[in-house]
Fold this sequence. Notes:
Number of strands: 8
Number of domains: 1
Number of helices: 6
Strand content: 5-15%
CATH topology: Aminopeptidase
Low-confidence stretches: 266-298
Strand order of the largest sheet: 2-1-3-6-4-5
Radius of gyration: 18 Å
CATH class: Alpha Beta
Distance between the termini: 42 Å
CATH superfamily: Zn-dependent exopeptidases
Structural class: alpha/beta
Mean pLDDT: 87
Order of helices and strands: EHHHEHEEHEEEEH
Shape: globular
Largest sheet: 6 strands, mixed
Amino acid sequence: MTALPAARGVAPFLPLVVHAPHAGTHVPALARETLLDSARLRAELNRLTDWYTADLFQLPGAALCATPVSRLAVDLERYTDDALEPRAAVGQGVIYTHDSQGQRLRPEIVPEQRRQWLDHWYRPWHLKLELDVLASLQRHGTCLLVDAHSFPACPLANEDDAGRVRPDICLGTGANTPAWLLDHALDWCARQGLSVAVDFPYAGCLVPAVYAADSRVAAIMVEVNRGLYLEQPDPATAPALGMDCFRVKAALNALLLGMAGQLWAPGGWSSVGEPSGQVAREPGSQGARASDLMELRH
């Protein structure tokens, strides 16, 4: 199996926006020509790509915000200002200078290159995400925003899990995550027999800054352990879809529909502004996710 089925061309009719910022594998020529070692590029793509998440999380009727551009060109979930970005300390700010093994990928780029790359790939994607949320608000008055990711079964060389075992599912929370939404996702994990952690090994949930703490916009990050749906014994090698990939996709579709259905449940939206807390069978901790909110205008 090399691909998952996808429902293309269905106009959004649900109050649901799914974004998969790390599913892309294309490194445009502008970015590729700055790389020091093309062989290491392929290995790093294999390690860092959230393989097939745009298809795993795609649901007919939901708006999908995805891009073919790899995070090795620009990382869409980083602050553009490296002074604000924690991952810049390991060379993985909005434009990576080092790979996950700590080796240099490219030299520091000049300010004009940086501006060009952000204008070409970063800002248009964030604008589309903001417009997708706006469209949902105009149509429904509400929006559920799902930050879709996957993660390697074992930490990469520049990640520190402090000896904790990685769960099947990681749920990331932020100021826009109401208690009812987190509780629904936790209950779904329990019913599926999946281990779950909140904000571990990655934390936070990307929300356009204009909608930060907006009571109309509920948001949660859902990260899937790649061991559930990929065959990839070595993260540096190209993965293959595992036999359970269709079961995982069906389960994720059910989760998305269930969470969207909560928008119409009595009292569902009354708790959007309340703190979500750290409710999980395995309490979460701050991990490598950059931030809860991304600043869109610089």
